Amino acid sequence: MRQMLHQLLSIITQEKNVIYKSNEELADLLRRRLMGRRYLIVVDDLWSTDSWEEIQRCFPEDSNGSRILVTTRLQEVAISTGGSHNDSVNLPFLNPNESWELFNLRILNYRSLSMPPMKLEGIWRHIVEYCKGLPLAIVIVAGLVQAINESLWESQSKDMEKILCATVTNSLVDSFSEILRLSYNHLPNVLRVCFLYLGVFREDSAIPMKKLIRLWIAEGFVKVEENQRSLEEVGEDYLKDLE
Fold it and tell me: Which of 122, 125, 186, 205 has its CA 20 to 30 A from that of 32?
């Protein structure tokens, strides 16, 4: 809650270091700064009704067209955001064409990566179909491409297809645990260590890039080869490879 209040205040007041003794003071300041103003606030990926009940009291309703947009994966949270102007929108799953478009778009976003070989496109399309139009699942599948090169796909594509077909009826976590395991297993050893190191940070916390790279260097994870590059530059490359 405190982090959320700080983020909202820093945006509204343009002050980065807003320090008050309690959440109540922060909430009161936020409400006073919004009073009489027309605003649009987006609260993304809300996971509990308690969080909404606590934060909504900071948003004054002056009948001036202000709006709160809340995104959530939980139906009960969507219902709890009710009010006189509440409109819930259930986003539909993607159709086959939209699914394939999203898959291609994610592939093109990866650094120095081309599309999978055309001879494998049929298998990829089949795998994308098994995602049932769920964007998160499609993004996870697309992430495999950066970890598995063409030669590996030629030898393992059938196995990958079987894994996805066998697990798709389970929950999302269970369905793609094998996918994530394969993606992790194909990382170089040094990137595995750097990836696992992220576990020292709290869930959903912001991780400053420079701080993370310095910590990697301090732990001895970053190695400089004979190319006269600095540890920081190599660490930045590690971070890009993990994107």
Answer: 205
* Whole-Å CA distances, 241 to 132, 144, 155, 188, 196: 28, 13, 23, 10, 14
Q: How confident is the model at residue 108 (pLDDT cuts 50, 70, 90)?
A: low
SS3 label, residue 177: helix
Please give the share of the chain, as a percent, with pLDDT higher than 90.
12
**pLDDT at residue 218 tops 50:** yes
DSSP strand pairing (40-43 vs 67-70) = parallel
Provide the 8-state DSSP code for 202. Answer: P
Is-contact 107 142, C-beta < 8 A?
A: yes
- Domains with residue ranges and CATH for the chain: 2-80 (3.40.50.300), 96-186 (no CATH), 190-242 (no CATH)
Q: Given this model, what pLDDT does residue 176 score?
A: 60
- Concatenate the DSSP letters of all residues of 80-102 into one string: HT-STT-----PPPPPHHHHHHH
Number of neighbouring beta carbons within 10 Å of residue 24: 10
Residue 217's pLDDT is 92
From CA 111, how far away is CA 54, in angstroms rounded?
Answer: 41
**SS3 string of 115-158?**
CCCHHHHHHHHHHHHCCCCCHHHHHHHHHHHHCCCHHHHHHHHH
**Is residue 199 scored above 80 in pLDDT?**
yes
Answer yes or no: are the C-beta atoms of 99 and 129 closer than 8 Å: yes
